[in-house]
Every structure is written in C-alpha cells, then in structure tokens.
TrEMBL record:
It comes from Callaeas wilsoni (North Island kokako). It comes from the Eukaryota. The keyword Disulfide bond applies. This is TRXR1 reductase. The lineage of its organism: Eukaryota, Metazoa, Chordata, Craniata, Vertebrata. One of its GO terms (biological process) is cellular response to oxidative stress.
C-alpha cells in the first residue's frame, strides 16, 4: 500500500489577500510567471506553493538561489522546471528527467518525436534468476532539434544514481547521436542508454534474453 500524503499550501491566512496576491482557491497554490513573480510585481514565490511546479526541496533551493541572483546580482538565469531529475524510491527504483511521453507529445507534436526503449536485465539479477524483463529504459528525442533528448526514464536498480548523471548531460543538450557515441561501462544498468536502437514506432520486440 502506497500512501502519498502530499503537502498543503498554507497561504490563505498569511495576509496575501491584503496586498492583492492571487492564489488558486482550490488548493492554495500561487500562480507565478517564469521568474517566480506573482500578479503583484514586487511579490515573488518559490517552492512547494507554486502552481504547477514540482514539490521537491532541491527545486526550491535552486529557484531561490537564482531568484536572489536575478534580484541582486544582475543575473538573468531562470529556474529550469523541466529538466529536473527525480526518483521514486520504491524497491525497484524509477527515475526520470525531462518530459514524460504524453507531455512531450503535447509540447512538440507526436510526429516530431522519436522514442527509443528497451527492457534490460541487471547483472546482479542473473545469479538469483530474477525476471530478465522487469527493468525498462526509455528516451524521448526531438527530431526537429538534432534528436535532442527531451525525456529520459529508467526503471531498475539504482535509478536515482543513473538519472542524476544523465540529468547533467541533458542540461548540456544531450542528443541521441552523443549517446550512441558514448562508450558504456559493462556491465552496468546505465550502459543500456548507449545501446538503444529500437523505436516504439517500429513495434519491434524489446524483450531480453541475457544481461
């Protein structure tokens, strides 16, 4: 049983209405623009109370740091709320960065995307004889932008560690070609991203026979 308690945005009783800051009356979240500015120009909001943003501590820290640099340091850098690596730490971890496939389709159009995917078998699973088609990896590429990777997903052991490393590459403009040119470390789970060659659109079988 998974209980996702979540967080409440306790914004209704702190005087925001006095200065005219608008909130979402249903959930208390605060709508902001891409610079974390509310409808009142001199009031900014960061973190879990933002409407439509991720409720993650590192995101709030990054957004706050960049906001301070813009306000007082002459910077123009904004927080990237898309390429945020995150992980669900269930017994078999799930990690992702960038767009899920459905949102990527909404953003770029299905005809402009190529999705590569595969099942894989971690080496440490071979001795106990665990199912060799439980772990899964997928990348979503924008064909109109040199096959840039706009979404990366992995279900398998240590997915958090794997995702963190690829997140940095995605911030640097990772493309499918660069992944193909990267020499994998054998035998690791992350290696699977350097050997993907089956697209979802092809309908080819992605089951694995070995590690």
């Amino acid at each position: 049983v998974l209980i996702a308690v979540g967080r409440d945005a306790c914004t209704r009783n702190i005087g925001l209405q006095t200065i005219g800051v608008k909130i979402n009356e249903k959930n208390g979240k605060v709508p902001v623009n891409d610079e974390e500015q509310t409808n009142v120009p001199y009031v900014y909001a960061i973190g879990d109370i933002l409407e439509g943003k991720l409720e993650l501590t590192p995101v709030a820290i990054q957004a706050g740091r960049l906001l301070a640099q813009r306000l007082y340091g002459g910077s123009s850098r904004k927080c990237d709320y898309i390429n945020v690596p995150t992980t669900v730490f269930t017994p078999l971890e799930y990690g992702c960065c960038g767009f899920p496939e459905e949102r990527a389709i909404d953003e770029y159009g299905e005809q402009n995307l190529e999705v590569y995917h595969t099942l894989f078998w971690p080496l440490e699973w071979t001795v106990p004889g665990r199912d060799n088609n439980t772990c899964y990896a997928k990348i979503i590429c924008n064909k109109q932008d040199n096959n840039r990777v706009v979404g990366l997903h992995v279900l398998g052991p240590n997915a958090g560690e794997v995702t963190q490393g690829f997140a940095a590459a995605m911030k640097c403009g990772l493309t499918k070609e660069l992944l193909d040119e990267t020499i994998g470390i054998h035998p690791t789970c992350a290696e699977v991203f350097t050997t993907m060659n089956i697209t979802k659109s092809s309908g080819q079988d992605i089951t694995q026979k070995g590690c």
